[in-house]
């Protein structure tokens, strides 16, 4: 019988790419991970890994086993959900992950509702970038998390996770007050300095992609992962920035918001098989109720009418 803990290590190697990364994720030593994978290979009776330069790669048999592992782990999650549903009452710890703008807006009302309706739940929130969400869910550091992508820069779904749509937002180009809006705001910012997220973040990728679609590379002057900081820099005349609707409820004075056709799409994610877990289902329901009360495509604060050609299109 194959050991589930060792199968999880093999699955994580497929996602993370190196034994060192798997060791760090599980707080093991690389040597311990290598020994466990070697033991799994002996159990399997076929070669699962092979050298690829200084790294290891999965053989076709190893890749096939990972696909089966995803099914096994999802079945275990579903079994746990069934047992949780058979218990009286809703209790236990629920670890929720969300990106900063959601922590400030969507999450607090949902937490209030959950505490009111399910007082025995122990709710713990972690703020993190969406790119870190899949690994945190796979590693069981989170149970429910918000992640997002943009319609112009879609993210490939993680096979270990399921998710449900939560919210679509307008994305704005934040410019200094007094800036004359162009028919195409991104084209109009061709010669502007840009404020973008750190490399590796979706915010960084979507800003660069938007400029590339307009036929130029942005001149990046500042990097800021916090939208409040980015808006403050815009207000100080330091450049322009892309900001989603959740981040612009109260923009600072001196900022003008130009709506774009770009949409940011937020989803609630959890491990495959966990959708029917009562605590997960309660979190998803509370988040959907909060999102349903979101004001839509006309946030409070300073913003402008859509540029000529009509309002931004929906994803």
TrEMBL record:
PROSITE patterns reported in the protein's UniProt record: HTH_LYSR
Protein family according to the UniProt entry: Belongs to the LysR transcriptional regulatory family.
UniProt superkingdom: Bacteria
GO MF term set: DNA binding; DNA-binding transcription factor activity
Keyword check for Transcription regulation: yes
Protein name per Swiss-Prot or TrEMBL: LysR family transcriptional regulator
Annotated Gene Ontology cellular component terms: protein-DNA complex
Domain HTH lysR-type: 2-59
InterPro entries, A to Z: LysR_HTH_N, LysR_subst-bd, WH-like_DNA-bd_sf, WH_DNA-bd_sf
Alphabetical keyword list: DNA-binding, Transcription, Transcription regulation
Keyword Transcription regulation: yes
Native source species: Micromonospora deserti
Regions that span the bilayer: none
Disordered as annotated region, ranges: 294-315
